[in-house]
Every structure is written in C-alpha cells, then in structure tokens.
Amino acid sequence: MSQTEEKLSISPYKRHVIMCVGKSCGENMPLLKYMKEAVAKAGLGEGEGAVRVNRAGCLGVCKQGPIMVVHPEGVWYANLDEQKIDTIIQSHFIQDEPVQAWAFHEQA
Ligand code: FES
User: Fold this and answer.
1) What is the pTM of this model?
2) Top mutation candidate among 20, 54, 79, 104 for ligand 1, by most atoms within 8 Å of CB
C-alpha cells in the first residue's frame, strides 16, 4: 500500500484552536508552543475534552494579534499572551465558559 492509499486518521477532540503566527500577528511561535504545552499540562492533550492546537499563516484579521479562533463555538480572541491563554484554558476549555472580555467575535 502506498502512502497515498493509507487511511488517514485523527484522534477525537472536543475543540480545535487555530492560532495565527503570521507576520502582522508577530509570528508568535513561542506563544503557540506555550499554548500546546499548557493544553497538555491541563490534561487536554487527548481524551474526552481534548483540544487540538494548530497554526495558521493568517486568519484575515491582522490587527491586535496574536489572534486565535476556537471551534466549534467560533470564538475569536485577540491580544493574546501567556496569562490570557492560561485563563482561556481554565474558563473556556475546562469550564465551557468562553472569556467574553477578550472575545471580539462569536460565530453563534
Ligand atoms: S497575520 Fe494574523 S490575522 Fe493576519
């Protein structure tokens, strides 16, 4: 079986975070790394409440970065830093309460 014929699979997850690491958002790879590590530390790396974290080159907002969007709710956060990520993990990902104070859009 060739590689293209292999069946692809992804472990189940509850939320999908897409963080922009584009130029206008500061190309913030250290913050992406922090997010991935903090999610794993919170026990959300796999299992029922798993949070999948990926990066994007641009999410089309390009102001007040770093920007990320959290699906399935479609909640967009801006001006992220490590402290905000810790709070978002606790409130949004663990308690299912998005942090409205930092959300600038929700795709309800
Ligand atoms: S570079 Fe981050 S939204 Fe465009």
Assistant:
1) 0.92
2) 20
